[in-house]
Amino acid sequence: MNKWKNVTLVLWTVTLLFALSGCGYNTLQMQDESIKANWSEVVNQYQRRADLIPNLVNTVKGYAGHEKEVLTQVTEARARVGSIQVSPAVLNDPQALEKFGRAQSELSGALSRLLAVSENYPQLKADANFRDLQAQLEGTENRITVARNRYIKAVQEYNVTVRTFPSNLTAKAMGYSIKPNFSVDNEQVIAVPPKVDFGADAGKNQNTSPRSTP
What is the spatial distance between Cα 118 and Cα 124, in angstroms, rounded to a whole number? Predict the structure, then answer.
C-alpha cells in the first residue's frame, strides 16, 4: 500500500513540475534572476562613477578652487547617492527606485556643470590627470547607459510574463508581481550623460560638433 502511495506521490510531483513549467514557472525564475543580475551591473557602474568623483573634484580644485558652488554641488550630490541603501528590496519598491534614479540624475547634472566650468581653465583642461579622469568618466557613462537599458528590458520582459495568461496564474500562485521600472520622465533625464569635451582635441576640429554620448 505504501509503495503505491509513494508511486502516486511521485507521479503527482512530476505532473506538477510539468504543469508549472508549461505555465511559465521556469520563465519567471529565469527572468527574475536576470533582473537581479542586470540590476547589480547598474549599481556597479554607478558606483564606479561615484568612485571617480573625489579625484575629479580634487583635480579641479587645484586649478579652480574658487568655484566653490559647483564643487560643493558635486560633493553633496555624491553624498546623497551614497546615503541611499541599494538592497534587492528596491526592485519591488517604486518610490525607492524613483529616489535612487532621482539622486543619480542630480549627480549627472552636477557633473555636467563641473565639466562645463573646466572650459574656463585651459591649464586644467591640459592636466594629464584631469584628461584621464574625463576619459574614465566618459567610458563609465557609456557603460551606465548600456547597463540601465539592459535592466529596463529585463524588467519589461518579466512584467509581460507576469501579466500574460497563463503565466499570470503561476505568478499569482507563486507570489510574483509586477516590478517597477525607471519612469519615462526620469529616464529622459538620466539618459543624458555629462558632456565630456577633450579641449585641445576639440579645438582641432572647430567645425565638428562637441562629442557626446547618445
Answer: 7
